[in-house]
Structures are given as C-alpha cells and as structure tokens.
Amino acid sequence: MNLSGFLPELAARIATLRRDLHAHPELAFAETRTSALVAEHLKSIGIEVHTGLAGTGVVGRLQRGTGKRAIGLRADMDALPLPELNTFPHRSRHEGRMHACGHDGHTAMLLGAAEALMKLGNQANFDGTVYFIFQPAEEHEGGGRVMVEEGLFERFPMQMVFGLHNWPGLPAGSIAAMEGPIMAGADRFEITITARGAHAAMPHQGTDAILAGAALVQALQALVSRATDPQDAAVVSVTRFHAGHADNILPEQAVLGGTVRSFRPELQDALEQGMARICNGIETTHRVRIELEYVRGYPPTINAPEPTFVSREVARQVVGGENVLTHLKPSMGAEDFSYLSSVVPGCYVWLGNGPGEGGCMLHSPHYDFNDAIIETGIRYWVRLVEKALAPA
Length: 392
Ligand SMILES: [Zn+2]
Ligand SMILES: [Zn+2]
Hints:
alpha/beta; 2 domains; four-stranded antiparallel β-sheet; binds zinc ion; 10 helices
C-alpha cells in the first residue's frame, strides 16, 4: 500500500499516542517514561534502537541499500515546568508540568514517520541510513549538546541533520524553511557590583552599588544601539536588579542579570567583550568592584544551504509551493538543535500549527499541539528521507 493509503489510519493512532504523551509530561533529562515508550515503539516496528545517550536520549537506525550516506531526523521529548490550564481529557496528569511547546507532537510524528518508512518497505525509495534522534532536555538544559558531547556523531556518522518545530500563528500545515539564521543564540550574564556601603545621608563616605548598577543598565543598552551594526539583530536585556534593604543604608552589593540574543558567533563574542569593557569603565567611574559572569548558552540556529534546499523541495512537494514560506523573519527565541547543526549541516523548519485556541503561543499554559498537522509532519519526514538519500 502507498503512503496515502495507510496514512489516515497511522496518523489517527499517532494522535492517540501524542495525547498520551501530552497527559504524561516529563521535564528535562527525566523523560524516562517517554524514552521507554519511544524505544519500545521503534523496536516493535523493527527498527534498531540505541538508548542511554544523554541519559534518556534514544537513537533509532534504519538502513536501506548499500549507500554510505546518512542523515539524522531529530525530535525533542521534554515538557515545561508550567501548570497546565487546559481542561480537555488529555490534559497533564502531573501537577506543575505540561507539554506547552508541542514536543509531544514532535516525538509522536517522528515515531509515525519511522513506522511509515517500515510499512512502505522497498516502496520508500532511498539508499543509505536514517537516524531517528529523540533528544532529552531541549528546554533550557541543552540535551542536544549533551548528546553531541557523548558521541552522537561519532557513533552515528551523518552528513545532514534535520529538525522541525510546530509553530503557532502560521497556518496549519504550512512549512517555513528559511536559509541562514532562524533562531537566535542565547547567552546569559550575572554582574555583581561590590561597593563600600555607607550611611545614606553621608554617601561621600562610601561608594554606591545602586548608582553604579543604574549607570550600568543604561550603558549596556549602548551595546546594541551603538556598537552593533543596525542590520545585525541583537538583544541585551537586563531582567534582574537586586540591591538594598533599608531607606537609610547604601548597600554593599548589587546583583544584575539578564539575557543576550544574537544570530552570529562573531557578534556573540563582540557583545561579551563589550559588556566586559563597559563593566571596567563603570568600575573606575564609580569606584566599585564589578564581576561579570558571562555564560554561553545555545548557539544560533543557522540553516545551511544544501539541507535547506532539500527541505524546501520536499515541503513544496508535501504542502504545495504556495504554503511554503521562505522569507519570514527569524525568531529571537533559542533552540538547542543548534548544537547538532553547528557540527553537521542542518535545516530546522517551522510546521504551521494554526491559530490555536484563542491564538495562544508556545509556552502558554493553554497550549496544545494540533493533531491535524500530524499527517503533514509524517509526510514531510518520509519524503525528506527519500529526497536526501535518493538513490544515485
Ligand atoms: Zn519551548
Ligand atoms: Zn520547543
């Protein structure tokens, strides 16, 4: 039977599985039930399974023909520490956790694609190896980085890697495949200002951590407005400022923190160096000590030309050219698929999730993955394998 023949039945089963995952959300690196379910499903359809990478990570391997080429398809499995406010039957059974980013849908669709490829047998026309990568901890904890550090690409060599994310606000079933930057790099910083505290009525007898901090918040805004090419997107946001406890005391310490977003590693370097430079200047001006802790987070997600070409061609085939978006603005959000695609050329696409209930967005306590896009997702993965590993 061809794909269209069995896809409705398969997608319906995958939707049931997706709702089961939604009802049992698990947080970063603790996706034990999900991981076991994924491994079990892959085994049951006859796919070679490797477990234990990054703890709960699972890699399925499917080889056809004698070709040496290989690609990876990646799904993320983790949920968010967020109390769910939905009331439908498949709402979270776990207090304080929910699938508010649709990773339940990503995991389910990739399982569906693996099953479709097995069902198609030799009708699926490809020559080479497909790795189905189920990663833990996409949200903030960098499960993708841990998989790479623990040898993902040494154990499973591949030439291209692909990811997708459901995207609320884009029409259901549309696909956005942009070449170049698609998600930002996300760094964070903490700045500790140490002053010589004093009586607030006699400020000249000490130094002022709060005034230095205020000057610092202002000065940091010049990094984007005056030290960055206006054509180069970047964000520096100070999101925390803690200091003081009384009206008549100038405190000894102020602690500030926040996030830095950008799309180019060179710009990340420049922003980090600029931040250090400004801290030094404020230190001298205000006679305080400033310690800057700058922590590199997810690198920017950059779609490489060749995999993006493949993704677009496949997207056009699956949803029609008019539903393939190629020139949307990238998001300032971050994505740890970048740890994979900064080692191996990759393409990460957005799969339209539709407007959703009340137009709610990712990480909303009302979010839910749209089961109506499962068929499109499965079809995209299957055709992508055939295109990327087309017989020579
Ligand atoms: Zn998320
Ligand atoms: Zn996500």
